[in-house]
Amino acid sequence: MLEDFKLDYFYGMDTMLLLLILGTFLGFFIQTVIGFAGALVALPILLLAMPLPDAISYISIFYFISTPIFVYREWKNIDKDILKKLALSSVIGVIIGIVILSYGQPMILKKALGIFIILFVLNSLRDQKETKRNSKMEYTFGFLGGFFSGVFSTGGPLYVMVVKNASPDVKTFRATMFGILGLVTIVRLPALAIGGILTIHQLYNSLFVLPFFIMALVLGKKAYLKMDEQLLKKIILGLLFVSGVMLLV
């Protein structure tokens, strides 16, 4: 009886680690290529093996590790003005989002976000003209991006809607996305620890995933250097649409 329990336990752990490795590798490969969507790719895979709060913790750990690397590499390309405008409202949004993750049942918000993203992509395809930069929109979307980053670690698409219109090219867009998502992560990880969601056990398991995470960063950088700007723009809209559908289902 005890031996059967041990076998089931270790089988469950092996499955969890395998899915954690797969989700982290795919998520951060995409994140390195285009500047966002790491959590949107990783989260559905991680949720096959663990509850939502645990999945958010693992994703946040690897975002926290990658943030100094991304920001150091891309600092000269980051739009500091848009980053400043998004910063304060994002921090407030993250804190409120983590409170809801800790004490609420926020799944209906996830579906609402999915619908919103799909409508945004369809509108972008219909009208190719860039919308005018609006400071009120930046503050509002900064708060919403931080909020959904705190609840689901999926605030990236909301930041895309602002940063995409404010960026003159894909290089600036990608670098600025690294900057704002890095800022959100710096706030989110300590907040998860204070809220009791982040645990020592999760940090221990992350050590096994670390080599695959590093591999994702290296391969993602190589893939980015080989892609042209128009292809990256199409990938950004395509991933936004897929992420919206995934949030719905």
UniProtKB/TrEMBL annotation:
Pfam families tied to this protein? TauE (PF01925)
Membrane topology according to the record: Multi-pass membrane protein
- The answer to whether keyword Transferase applies is no
Q: Which UniProt keywords apply?
A: Cell membrane, Membrane, Transmembrane, Transmembrane helix, Transport
Q: Transmembrane stretches, by residue range?
A: 16-49, 85-102, 108-125, 137-160, 180-200, 207-225
Q: Which domain of life is it from?
A: Bacteria
Similarity remark: Belongs to the 4-toluene sulfonate uptake permease (TSUP) (TC 2.A.102) family.
| Name of the featured protein | Probable membrane transporter protein
Which InterPro entries does the protein's record reference? TM_pro_TauE-like (IPR002781), TSUP (IPR052017)
**Subcellular compartments:** Cell membrane
